[in-house]
Amino acid sequence: MTASGGEAFLFWTLAPLMVLAASGLLVVRKAVHAAICVMFVMVGLAILYVAQEAPFLGVVQVVVYTGAVMMLFLFVLMLVGVDSADSLTETIRGQRWIGLLLGAGLAAVLLTVIGRATFRPAVGLADANAVSNPVALARVLFEHYVVAMQVVGVLLVTAALAALVLTHRRRLGPRLTQRAVATARVAALAQGRPLTPLPAPGVYAQNNAMDTPALGPDGRPLEHSVPRVLRIRGQERSATAVLAAEETLVEHRAAAAELSEAAELSETARTAGSPARTPGGEEHR
Amino acid sequence: MELTNYLGLAAILFAIGSATVLLRRNSIVVFMGIELMLNATNLVLVTFARMHGDITGQLLAFFVMVVAAAEVVVGLAIIITIFRARRSASVDDVNLLQS
Amino acid sequence: MNDGFIAPEIDWAVVAPVLVVLGAGVLGVLVEAFVPARARRVTQILLTLAALAGSLVAVVLLWPRVLRDGFAFIVDGTYLLTPFTLGVQAVVAVLAIPGVLVIADRTSSGEDAFAPTAAAVPGTAYEDAARQAGLQQTEIYPLVLFATGGMLLFPATDNLIVLFIALEVLSLPLYVLCATARRRRLLSQEAAFKYFLLGSFASALMLFGIALVYGFAGTVSLETVVLVLQHPELSPLGTMPGLVLTGVLLVLVGLLFKVGAAPFHTWTPDVYQGAPTPVTGFMAACTKAAAVGALVRVLFTLAAGFDDALRGDIVVALWVVAILTMLVGTVAGAVQTDVKRLLAYSSIAHAGFLVVGLVGFSELGARAVVFYLLAYGLATIGAFAVVTLVREQDASGVVLGEATRLAQWAGLGRKAPWLTAAFALFLLSMAGIPLTAGFLAKFGVFQAAVDAGAWPLAVLGVLASAVAVFFYVRVIVLMVLTPPADERAAPEAAGAAAPGAAGAAVRPVEGGGGTAAGVVTAARTAVARATVVVVGSRGPAALAIALCALGVLLVGLLPASVLDLAGEAAKFRP
Amino acid sequence: MQTLALAPWLVATPSLGAAILLLAGRRTDRWGHWVGVLASAATFVVGLVMLLDMFGMAPEERVAHHTVGTWVDAGALHVDLGFQIDPLSMTFVMLVTFVGTLIHVYSVAYMSHDLDRRRFFAYLNLFVAAMLLLVLADSYLVLFVGWEGVGLASFLLIGFWDHERVNAVAGKKAFVMNRVGDMGLLVAMMLMLATFGAVDFETVIGASAQGAPGASQAVMIAIGLMLLLAACGKSAQFPLQAWLGDAMAGPTPVSALIHAATMVTAGVYLLVRSGPVLEAAPDAQLVVAIVGAVTLLFGAIVGCAKDDIKKTLAASTMSQIGYMMLAAGLGPVGYAFAIFHLITHGFFKAGLFLGAGSVMHAMGDTVDMRRFGGLARLLPVTTITMGLGWLAILGVPPFSGFYSKDKIIEAAFMGEGWRPWVFGFAALLGAGITAYYMSRLFFMTFAGRRRWASDGPDAPHPHEAPALMVWPMIVLAVGSAGLGFALNVGDGFVHWLEPVVGHTEHHEPVLPVWLLIALTLVLVVLGAALAFRQYAMSAVPTTPPHAHALVRAARVDLHQDDVNEALVMRPGQYLTRALVYSDRTAVDAGWLGLAGGIGRFGDRLRRLQSGYVRQYAAQTLGGLAVIAVVVWLLSGQVG
To answer: Which sign, positive or negative, has the C-alpha torsion A210, A215, A217, A223?
Structure first.
């Protein structure tokens, strides 16, 4: 059977693009791009479904597959690390050629088998879809496939249960209420812990990087404002170091200024930088 | 245009999907390959339904979609579990079990 | 809009075996939600066992009726019982009961084989907290029920798409169950991942096959496909045997994958090894039964419609699979060093023998296969149950995971004579020694092959089973005749263990290495020195082993009644 | 037959004994062995009652069946749990239970220091039960159960002293090689099922006796060869003989039981029982005779080279069973003689083994004959009993071996064409070599000077064994001496077996009988004399054989017959060593190579299991491609 010219146009426009997108699955490095390729194929399929007298499936394809399933994929990609790129270097010897060969072989066999699949004019679905496609589907579903439908229900329960078993972590301790948190903070005050949240690193300092301690209201640097990890690794910058850097910077500027302006002006600039210098800063280390 | 072309497209998509399983190392991409295979099958079913004038084929495709959705949930759950434990989503890293 | 719609009539009694199990599974999910944590485990176990028993009762009640009518079905054969199907359902239900008993056992170490919560990352503080909080992953019981439900449905349908759905229903819970081991969970998760990926790959191939068969016949009902095969003019594409041949081959891939036949067996050793052992036993026995049942259902039914050429092609494919499978199973099995892998390869070899019985598409083959599945399943569940009880123990007496290295099984006969006797019995049955169930089972399938004119296959099968005896006997010799490894190493171990009575607190004699290094060294030596102990069962597993051993012996000694039942269950088409 | 209903008890009694001993556990440690003896003796009594009943009947009524019930009933396969009671099976029952009981009694003393004596007796009873089931079965399937049971029991017994690795390995080897033979029986059964639709003797043998209508010659040959393979495995015939020597690692009473009454005789039983099947396939029958002839020479020559007393006896068993196989392969004319020789052999070989056990008992478990010598005075009873066994196996008239072996030699000389000459001379030559190596054993052990250290802490103090060991030896010695004559009176034994093996007209051998007897005796005397001169008259070196040959040659040159040395001794020794070497390398290496090949192939397969899931998927798809290609090649239908 031959389809109408419009359908042919649609097919020949979409099909190459879909194959191209699908091939993207084989070659793109980033998983997100692969997902987008698949989505393109799926939407393309939805359009082809509609063209093939299956409007209901077309809609379901967009809603369920592209809308839900692929979104789920994207969610997981986010969890796993959306930026992670896949190296395309093959590590298993021969696997690439074997894979390509088998893929090509499979395509060849299926194409030969399927390629001869029209000997008589196809029937078309005009009759079957007389009561509208979804209704016709519903009738077949509820008349002939009740068992399948019910079992599919079980399958969905299984899926939910599976997701729960594998990913849901039960809360093991008591839930922390705001009151409990507040009480604990007040109690910890006695041990010298701060009542308020820790200051963010870099606050009030001249440099607001993560590794620069914040300055307290008294101008002292607060070491605990730097993330613990950086401190353990010894990657935080002490206030002294910051100040020293500041000073060199200022000196550079001053030197530059000296060239153009008077010596008194540079003297003023030096005193302006000095309040950051504290007596505690040096001996803190 | 022959309806067979749809089947040809499906066959190519199916083969690309299976090649993905064999070639890619990111488990999520591999899994997408399997989804592609299922989608290709759906196209075959829909096309055959049209050839036979029998709407059952579309219903079968519908079932496949539902089953695939359930499968995706389980599969992604397993992938997440593995990722949490190993910080890797590469299928090649999952090879402690061998002889 | 309702005109023209005829609501289907459903004879609920016919569906009862499946319905009871799946219903109980859903109920089990509700139990998770509403029953307090303390009572949950007991409730779930009782519910599961009751459901399986109920299913078995339903099968028994249905038996006379199906035998009389030759079939029973609902809704266009999307659920179809034949005597053969019912026989397979009976085997699955019978095997699932000891399977669940092993799953439920906590052993004298007080812990079952499952993680307190499978979502915890192995080796984290959260996992420890979960263990201390006494969490239990009781969801495994509904999952087992869902899987069993799928297995019961798998062979019981005339409709290929229901077959596919049943395949997924039985597979998905198994994928999850594989990932829930308490110990060596990284391996367990890996097993789940591999099983899942390869399983969905195979089922995608199978689905394409179904689509091709649908294209050929315009229907997915097997009986109608047979009709089209006999009268090609009924379908627009009915004159294209290539479609149906490729389709059937691809469907075979999916089914043989579940059976564990080569070259679709690659998942078996890894998954069997990684999965929690009780689950391995359950899936090795029950999945194989269900999958072989479905294979017979599909293949034997379609064979009625095959012309000679098509039949020849499929038989050739089965020959290749059978030969490869027996070869891989026996030869690779002979070089294994891990008990679970060894049993996995043995299971592959058995898949080969089962396929040998199928080549004739005859009632003789169907009967032999039902009998074989029962004999094999009993021995397998029993054997894996024994594996769950043989454990490692560190120097401080803490029971660790299973001692699956074969070397660790040396001299087990002195530590636990009865358990060893049972394990030896299971191995002998698998080897096919007379007076055990395995002998008549093997004889049956080979006889079916000879009867079908496939005598070279039967000779190969006998040869393979003769070679296979080698690795079963190797294990028996190891257990019974070889002194235990810890006894051989006793002098040095005694010297080393004496100061280490306090366990982890051993201080390194060298001193200078620092405490952290010392503890690590001590821990390493503890693992290296882990002795092998046999933990006691809290009852269920012991009961399961006893039931299986009794079954293996009874079926071997007095096979008449079971063979009669299998004979009744030989009719595979309505 | 009124006592027919007793038949099941023949199997049940020893099984019960084994069950009691195994299940009751350590509680029966103190008196359990007597339960074993009692069970065995009771079985003998039951058998005796049945035998006397059978004597009272006309010969043609002596074949009877007793069916206990249906064992397997599955469509095409219907097998009753039935017993076949006829002169052949009753003969075996008497042999197994009588000799078995004596060995039980002997073991009570022999194993008295073993902590696991109870378990040992349980296995002995199991062995007897399995063997009885084997010979009483009325179908191949039930026979197969006994067949496997014998294999299992021997595996347990050979590996009984399991603390030593070599024993465990020997047990395993025996079991595995037996399984190869069993495979033959299984395949034979399946072929029978496919050809005759049944596996019971009545149908299969009945049909075969009528020329097997509807069965092609190829199938009959296949069945015959498969039966032969089975017999070779169980009876340690070439090329499946390797396990027998290693099996000597087990306790000596076990060796006696395996070699005399059970196990190795099963193969001969199977072939004689299946006689008509083989007759329907003359080519297969010829192969049986050839295997027998090869093994009888092979075993005899190997026997010359062993210094281990038990291994020498094992080689002699191989050789003697070879005689029986040869007789069985000669057709109806040989069946009765095969069984006749089997019976007499059962007595004298059991006696010899028990004697060897007694020597070992006396010498602190030494088995090396080079460390014996001059024991005759210290162990008079053992010397006399073993001496009688020695004379019997030599075939010296009027001891029992003369009557049975001579008949086989005569039968081997019957027939037409090349066969009587080849088989006849093989049998004749075998008799001579047998005389040499058995005399060698006897003289090395009992005659000459003592070659063991008579003082020092580990020195043995040879003494006669306790009464419980001595009396069974005496009884067996009496049997070895007189049984042949007793059974031969008026061809009594041959007539006794006629209801089973059929009556055959007496043919004349190609050489006159008197000449054959004379030739045999001359060869025997020559062999014995040679051994006497080498091992009784002259000193036996205690060093290993390679020095032995040189030293001997040097000494012999001075005062012994050079010609004799050059013509008989050296070629003989070279042949011996070559054969032993080929046994070790060719045959053993063949087996090991097979095992190694499987191992290497397995390793290669194991490498496929790389753990990479992508490779698994590729294997799945690749496997599918392979299947598709094979299907396409074999039919061209794909696509």
So the answer is: positive
Residues of chain D with pLDDT under 50: 543-565, 567, 637-639
pLDDT given for residue C345 in this prediction: 93
* Report for A262-266, C182-186, D115-119, D215-219: range of highest mean pLDDT: C182-186
pLDDT on residue C56 = 95
Q: Decide if D608 touches A, using CB distance below 8 A.
A: no
Enter the tokens of residue C90: 């009976």
* D109 and D515 Cβ atoms separated by less than 8 Å: no
CB contact at 8 A, C556 and C429: yes
Residues of the domain holding A42: 1-83
Lowest-confidence range among A69-83, C254-268, D105-119, D285-299? D105-119
Q: Which residue has the higher pLDDT, D562 or A129?
A: A129
Mean pLDDT score across all residues of chain C: 86
List all residues of chain C from 257 to 286 with a beta carbon under 8 Å from chain A: none
- A-chain residues near C168 (CB < 8 A): 155
Name the domain count of chain A: 2
Domain limit, last residue, from A51, A83, A115: A83
To test the contact with chain D by mutation, choose from C195, C335, C374 the residue with the greatest count of D C-beta atoms within 10 A, namely C335
Among A38, A58, A83, give the residue marking a domain's end: A83
Average pLDDT, whole number, for chain A? Answer: 79
Name the residue ranges covered by the structural domains of chain D: 281-542, 543-597, 613-639
The pLDDT assigned to B45 comes to 94
Helices (H) and strands (E) in chain A, counts: 12, 2
Q: Which residues of B touch A99 (CB under 8 A)?
A: 19, 22-23
* A71 in B contact zone (CB under 8 Å): no
pLDDT of residue C515: 42
Q: What is the mean pLDDT of residues C389-400?
A: 85
| Predicted pLDDT of residue A191 | 83
Residue C169 near residue A149, CB atoms below 8 Å: no
Would you say residue B97 lies in a domain? no
* Secondary structure string (H, E, C) spanning C88-140: HHHHHHHHHHHHHHHHHCCCCCCCCCECCCCCCCCCCHHHHHHHHCCCCCCCH
Task: Please give the structure tokens belonging to residue C100.
Answer: 């669940």
Chain segment C50-59, per-residue pLDDT in tens: 999 999 999 9
Number of neighbours of residue C499 by Cβ within 10 angstroms? 10
Looking at residue A160, its pLDDT comes to 93
- The minimum CA-CA distance between D265 and chain C, rounded to whole Å, is 20
What single-letter DSSP state applies at residue C338?
A: B
> What integer pLDDT is reported at residue C243 of this predicted model?
87
Indicate which CATH number applies to the domain containing B27: 1.10.287.3510
Partner chains of A (3+ C-beta pairs under 8 Å): B, C, D
Range of the domain at B76: 4-88
Q: Do B24 and A26 touch (CB under 8 A)?
A: yes
Partners of A133 in the β-ladder: none
Which residue from D176, D194, D626 is facing C469, i.e. has the nearest CB? Answer: D176
- Predicted confidence at residue D263, as pLDDT, reads 81
Number of domains in chain B: 1
Q: Which of residues 70-99 of B touch A (CB under 8 A)?
A: 70-74, 76-81, 83, 89-90, 92
Spatial separation of the C-alpha atoms in residues A165 and A223, rounded to whole Å: 42
Looking at residue A19, its pLDDT comes to 94
| The pLDDT of residue D162 | 57
Concatenated DSSP letters of A125-189:
STTGGGG-HHHHHHHHHHHH-HHHHHHHHHHHHHHHHHHHHHH-----S----HHHHHHHHHHHG
The answer to whether C200 contacts chain A (CB < 8 Å) is: no
Closest C-alpha to D264, from D390, D381, D96, D423: D96
Please tell me which of the candidates B31, B96, B99 has its beta carbon nearest to residue C190: B96
Residue D149 is predicted with a pLDDT of 85
